[in-house]
Amino acid sequence: MDKRKDAILGLLKANGQASLAEVAAHLEVSKQGALRHLEALLEEGLVARDSEPHPGPGRPEHVYQLTPAAAEQFPHAHRELAGELVRFLSADQLERFFVERSARLEAGAAPQLAGHSLEEKVRLIGRMAAASGHMTEVTDNGDGTFAIRHCNCPIADVAAATGHPCRSEQSMYQRLLGTEVERTTWLANEDTACTYLVKTR
Fold first, then answer.
1. Integer Cα distance of 48 and 25 in angstroms
2. Does pTM surpass 0.85?
3. Which of 17-31, 72-86, 100-114, 171-185 has the least mean pLDDT?
């Protein structure tokens, strides 16, 4: 199954999309057999199915293409490149990069938070962070504080090596929420999560 899966993913990567018949021909199996493999990939979220109209009578033909999640199935060197960039850039250049990156993220988030209560803002920030791969949990501590807990860091290597993205993130949260935010745990310290404690005024 893994070899067949890899073959389908490779075909879709090379061609952009493929019909059931094209997948079956590529695998040298029946359409029924190809469909079983495609359905497994659909369940994994690696492949999407769409309908493509064709001339003449009959239903539109299904075509298959890769989802963004499938990118992880192919070789990449993002982590190695990021590490090389961190070693190449000066401390001042890194600081400026993460300040400008934080400003872009803040500009995109601020309109979505406008008009909401503090708790609503905290939960919205949690959802945004979760959508970007942080596996975020938000809890009400019951004492007037909230915790934003990131269980995963998509840029863990860079964060641990420099600390810049973490400091920028903390400052951004303070500006977006208009209140004090304290980092209480840090993945780089071998904690189980990065936790930001949001305090009410």
1. 19
2. no
3. 72-86
Give all domains of the chain, ordered by start, each with its CATH number.
2-73 (1.10.10.10), 78-199 (3.30.1380.20)
CA 141, distance to chain mean position in Å, is 27
Mean pLDDT across the chain, nearest whole number? 89
Question: Any idea how long the chain is?
Answer: 201
Residue 90: strand pairing partners = none
* Residue 45 dihedral angles phi and psi, to the nearest 5°: 80, 15
27-45 burial: b if 16+ Cβ within 10 Å, else e: beeeeeebbebbeebeeee
Amino acid at 65: Q
| Whole-number pLDDT of residue 80 | 80
Phi-psi group of 148: left, alpha or beta (phi > 0 → left; psi -120 to 50 → alpha; rest → beta): beta
Q: What is the pLDDT of residues 169-186, one digit of tens each?
A: 999 999 999 999 999 999
